[in-house]
Fold:
Amino acid sequence: MTRVSESTVRRLSHYDRVLEEVQAEGKRMISSHRLAEREGITSAQVRKDLSTFGSFGRRGLGYNVERLREEIRAILGLDRRWKVGLVGAGNIGSALIAYRGFEKQGFDIVAVFDRDSARIGQKLGRHVIQDIAVLPAAARENPFDIGVVATPIRAAQDVANALVAAGVRGILNFAPRKLFVPAHVALSTVDMAMEFEGLSFAITQSVARRRGRAAAAVPGPKPGRARGPASRNAGRRSGGRTRRAGT
Amino acid sequence: MTRVSESTVRRLSHYDRVLEEVQAEGKRMISSHRLAEREGITSAQVRKDLSTFGSFGRRGLGYNVERLREEIRAILGLDRRWKVGLVGAGNIGSALIAYRGFEKQGFDIVAVFDRDSARIGQKLGRHVIQDIAVLPAAARENPFDIGVVATPIRAAQDVANALVAAGVRGILNFAPRKLFVPAHVALSTVDMAMEFEGLSFAITQSVARRRGRAAAAVPGPKPGRARGPASRNAGRRSGGRTRRAGT
DNA sequence: CACAGTTTGTGAAACTTTTCACCAGCGATT
DNA sequence: AATCGCTGGTGAAAAGTTTCACAAACTGTG
Structure:
């Protein structure tokens, strides 16, 4: 089996969501075309993605909703439950605890740690916040698979190291910085500020484009090379960050 | 100038973070190599990314940290402040309000809406929670650029529609489903459950690979390419959701 | 059974993104 | 002034991802 791209995995999660809905609607079969439509992608993409892992459909009929969903969940490793340890009982940590959506997908938070002595011993949801110092011992006693880093930026790498030492196999990082972890540990970073910045760029860009449209009929923006230091913002091409329109 | 890829934009945000740090360390110049090292990517990537927008370095010397940072922030549209309207005063909404990190980057939450009459009128941070029904009027009176959807899944599309109607230019969506918005509105989705699922896949996968090593013909180290330069080690996949461009 | 209508799975083509490799510009040194 | 060591910019190659397009597999119908 070839290497699976990150985008494929992401789409598999999407398919799972769609299938859940479709299942709730009582449909028994679904075609790649209808599945794609709901996600705003092409049917070829859906078929390609699935074909990476096997052959789950029937020509002329489509995919059996229930079966496909099970296959996808097995591929994603969601046919089991995962134990999660959370480090950082601040805003993000609290939001994660309060948000029950993960449990539904099979992720159970089993321990919460923080460094702030004011918080240690208090309860967060069903969990008593423990001193980060006892993480190694706590993890030995009651191991977890995935660690969540929800600490301030400067503590993040140390916490990640501690989690790796404690034997986690994956880390979900909410601190806005690049973490370095050994190759056998999976890492995923969620940076909300960066999402805002992406929007900022897309909006700014679309304004520049609109503004440039009439004026940018200007000669060749590509003479020798000497693009003036202040002359960014020449003719930007279409493309566009945004998503498709719909409905 | 060619279309700018989403990954380039994401990296620009990263560069900004690194430059901020480097600036704090008092360094005046930085080379593409050192900048890349901090992000776990190649120096060619850094130079390519930057060259999309102009020519900011000096051969033999590198980039002026302060100047480059200003350029990047201008490119990203961070040389101004953005007004943000938040819909949904639940867990995620509260976490966003409590997290001051956005303000630092130029994003000010200026209004908060919810549908739950128990919450309407209460304060969340500095903001009084308003009835979602008054969103159109409130947005007319005090417009905002970006809308955040932090509602339950089934309300998400309606809220997005309302935000579009209210004239926002970008939407940040935390609901775990695909939203459809017109092409002139930028959309970015953060799905935390999906991040967990990505980890689940990666972990499951690595187990399968380890197990199958002897038997199956697994990808294995490619004979062709040298195993990257020294530091290419640790950091693998970094977070990143959101989407590509639509039609 | 033959035929029409669907829909999958998949090579190959098209397109996008990353990496390579090298020239040219820079300060420092002699 | 000539040379050295370093570094940015960039065209071209390589690698990766998405889309196209079509044979093959399936059901239903006459």
Notes: Chain A touches chain B through 88 residues (CB under 8 Å).
